[in-house]
Amino acid sequence: MIELIPAIDLIDGKCVRLTKGDYNQKKIYNENPVEIAKGFEEMGFKRLHVVDLDGARSKHIVNVDVLKAITTETNLVVDFGGGIKSEEDIEKAFANGASMVTIGSIAVTQPELFLKWLDQYGAEKLILGADVKNGMISINGWKEDSAEQLLPFLKRYIDHGVKNVLCTEISKDGTLQGPALQLYQEIMAAYPQLHLIASGGVSSNEDIIALDQAGIPAVVFGKAFYEGKINIPELLTTNKTQID
């Protein structure tokens, strides 16, 4: 039973979506993300994925006030990512209500620091972000390619206790062209113990059902919901997927 996690991406305090991570391909869906978060909560969701796109570009948290407003005005369990490059950023995210943080670039550029944080905060508090393009990890808001291949990158940290991985196929993100199902199946075949969160490309209820049938533990969705491409009540009713 797949876990459904709605997403709010932030630029200038507004709810937006990019296409393939391109800041020049930005669409604003709502100028008040707290309203969107409250709407998800009213539907029955317990979990929310929040991405600080300004933070990802600036390399430090920017939209902390929005995070605080969401966690103050809802009871949603929020995992927060984008621009977390220092312990100060992590502490700021937790102090403003985040229950978990997603960290990607630091795990590539400063692996010892990431392992230190893993020991310090625990595997339940950290989500390893793996943003993938052509089988390689991208960093810093998807603007830079690394020399890290996906599966060895994951193995290094799974061997050190990582349990939660958010994997985004960049070429799919925001395209509504369907998720990278084969990629996620390869990850789960290699690491069946992993709580893998699939991200990017979801365009319909059928896409989510396909991920569920493939044994993918969780999926993040954003644009498909904002564009009216998925029907949450129908999905929950007909497929017994879970929302928390």
Overall pLDDT, averaged?
A: 92
The helix/strand order is EEEHEHHEHEHHEEEHEHEHEHH
Fraction of helical residues = 25-40%
* Oligomer type: single chain
How would the global form be characterised?
Answer: globular
SSE class:
alpha/beta
Keywords:
244 residues; alpha/beta; eight-stranded parallel beta barrel; 11 helices; globular
Summarize the structure.
With 244 residues, the chain is of the alpha/beta class.
Overview of the molecule:
It is built from eleven helices and twelve strands. The chain is α/β, with parallel strands linked by helices. It has an eight-stranded parallel β-barrel, surrounded by seven helices. Helix 1 packs parallel to helix 3 (64-73). The radius of gyration is 16 Å and the shape is globular. The protein starts with a strand and ends in a 5-residue tail after the last helix.
List the helices and strands and how they pair.
Blueprint: E1 3-11, E2 14-19, E3 22-30, H1 33-43, E4 47-52, H2 53-58, H3 64-73, E5 77-81, H4 87-95, E6 100-103, H5 105-109, H6 111-121, E7 126-133, E8 136-139, E9 144-149, H7 150-158, E10 164-169, H8 181-190, E11 195-199, H9 205-213, E12 218-221, H10 223-226, H11 232-239
Parallel strand pairs: 1-4, 1-12, 4-5, 5-6, 6-7, 7-10, 10-11, 11-12
Antiparallel strand pairs: 1-2, 2-3, 7-8, 8-9
Helix pairs in contact: 1-3
